[in-house]
Amino acid sequence: ETGVTQTPRHLVMGMTNKKSLKCEQHLGHNAMYWYKQSAKKPLELMFVYSLEERVENNSVPSRFSPECPNSSHLFLHLHTLQPEDSALYLCASSQEWGLAGGQDTQYFGPGTRLTVL
Amino acid sequence: ELKVEQNPLFLSMQEGKNYTIYCNYSTTSDRLYWYRQDPGKSLESLFVLLSNGAVKQEGRLMASLDTKARLSTLHITAAVHDLSATYFCAVGGGSQGNLIFGKGTKLSVKP
Known about the structure:
The complex is a heterodimer.
Chain A: E1 4-7, E2 10-13, E3 18-25, E4 31-37, E5 44-50, E6 53-57, E7 64-70, E8 73-79, E9 87-94, E10 107-108, E11 112-116
Parallel strand pairs in A: 2-11
Antiparallel strand pairs in A: 1-3, 3-8, 4-5, 4-9, 5-6, 7-8, 9-10, 9-11
Chain B: E1 4-7, E2 10-14, E3 19-25, E4 32-37, E5 43-49, E6 55-58, E7 61-66, E8 71-76, E9 85-92, E10 99-101, E11 105-110
């Protein structure tokens, strides 16, 4: 596979469930990102990992827990979510993080459409 | 705090017509990106603009950047149905160098 892949593509979960979203990039990039895209808000950055270390956490509730075991994989662990967490969750990667220039063009995965009942 | 505003948010146009989408941002930035998103799909990178006066063209789309005015435009020439999508601009320079996205412009091109 090429580019950035995400699984599952669709997920329906109850508020008491625990689930995980997976992202994998095949581009040899060093930075990976989780974004939330909901109908009424701009794309919101949730987490940034650079060389497997978290470098950004935009006041995201603790019910979202990221994990980056290596530079190719990124997970988002979900537990006790709320209905307002229903959204499209996008993963992205870039060559480097925080640098000027085209190196940090972000390449996005197809997203996971999450519905919380 | 860096803010990015796009307008219009919705645009319905006829095939063959020209139109421009605007992206304003609030503080100095050294890079600006345009992305396209088709319904149910991911974001696809269209253009990266890195300097004042930069202009890039791909097919019927042309993007430009005026860093002094803190403005980028995405110009559509002789629109075709295949251009129907949501277009996002994103500006570098948020806290710790991240990208800040506009709300997107949903473009619908009708025959």
